Amino acid sequence: MSRSRWGQNVWRIPLLFAGDLLKQPTWVPIWVFALMIVNMASLAFWSELLAKVIFVTFLMSAILMMTLYAKFGFERILGFGHVFWIPLLAYILVQVRHAQGEFHAYLVVLSLCIGASLLFDIVDVWKFLSSKRVPR
């Protein structure tokens, strides 16, 4: 069921999102928490330009996701909030071979997490858009 939250105080939207997230099957909030942690781990490599790009992309995705949540509620369209991860993943895959040590390992783990998440997101957004089509 789609519920617009545009009338809500903008600062309450993340709290409402968290509440709806916790109503999902257990693996969903665990997965979302893991994605948050792996993205925020970029702060540990702040001296790297790519780490800054990762963190800013994470923030942009979070803002887009909260905007989508405010408009549609907890619906499959939220997967579109990770659209910025598509060019980010391509950039990481190009840059990972130049990274070394812990930063290299971090980029590999992040790439796997982003890749898996994008697969879920593509399916979710496709299902959302397919369900909104008007039969001919």
How many β-strand runs? 0
Main β sheet profile: none
Mean pLDDT level: 92
Given helix and strand content, the structural type is mainly alpha
Structurally, the number of domains stands at: 1
Poorly predicted runs of 5 or more residues: none
- Spell out the helices and strands N to C: HHHHH
Anisotropy-based shape: globular
- Termini separation (Å)? 23 Å
Tell me the helix content: 55-70%
Question: Please, how many helices?
Answer: 5
Gyration radius, in Å: 16 Å
% residues in beta strands: under 5%
Short description:
This protein is mainly α and 136 residues long.
Describe this structure in words.
The protein has 136 residues and is mainly α. It has one domain (13-131). The protein is built from 5 helices and no strands. The chain has helices at residues 13-22, 27-40, 49-72, 85-95, 101-131. Helix 3 (49-72) runs antiparallel to helix 4 and helix 4 runs antiparallel to helix 5. It is globular, with a radius of gyration of 16 Å.
